[in-house]
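Reading a protein record of the kind used here takes only a little practice. The record below shows the convention in full.

——
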Amino acid sequence: MPVVEVAGGPRLGDSEFEFLRKFVYTHCGISLGEHKRQLVQGRLFRRLRALGLQQFSSYCELLQRDPQSELGELASVISTNVTSFFREVHHYDLLVAELLPRWLEDKRRNGERLRIWSAGCSTGEEPYALAMVLAEAIEEHGANGVDAKILATDLSPQALETARRGVYPLDRLGGISDAHRRRWMLRGSGEYEGLASVHPKLRELVTIQPLNLLHEWPMKGPFDAIFCRNVVIYFDQPTKQRLFRRYAELLPAGGYLFLGHSESLHGISEDFELIGRTVYRKRG
């Protein structure tokens, strides 16, 4: 395979690309095939410029010296953080119509916590959409006394920074209904013209933390539901199997796992049963 070049830029040699492939798989669980070589070249070239590095070999040396310092940035570069509010709306329909009312009633009666995990939350649209329907369900069912929280995690520091700000361009709000938009999004003016911020009540429901899904997890659960949508598309089969085994350990019998539209547990995990479109329930 010849070296890939960018006009006026450094060259990504075979040895550097092979190092990056192994590093990314070991630390992120992401498999980079040979067909991703040009994508890696182009995206990492921008990262080199940001760091003031002249060669890809220098970047590889940085990763060798201090893997953790650059891991999140590298993950951001090689993955695509595509998300939106109320993406795959049938998941939210199930929450509103069936799951949240039942959970809130059970938690109120038994004095238990309600916990939802948005794993791979990207820039925050998913957990904030979950917070909208959760806040409204708490109000509708008189469950203000229930300890209800959403954990949102991601590896990318840039994505997490956006999620923590909770400020989005108006053209990113397309998935939000007019009613939800009026209630939960605060439109900016002046220097914030063209932007909208999530309501403070949503921030109270969402805890945003960095997390590498391949590393140790500080939380012990249990979670009532885990959303891991459009995340495992980057993983190979063994990595998926390990990840879903760990998810199962944090879910009680009857707990729910929500996947992305192109993802499936078929041939990967026997811990869950399919009960709807990309909706799985942990077996009892």
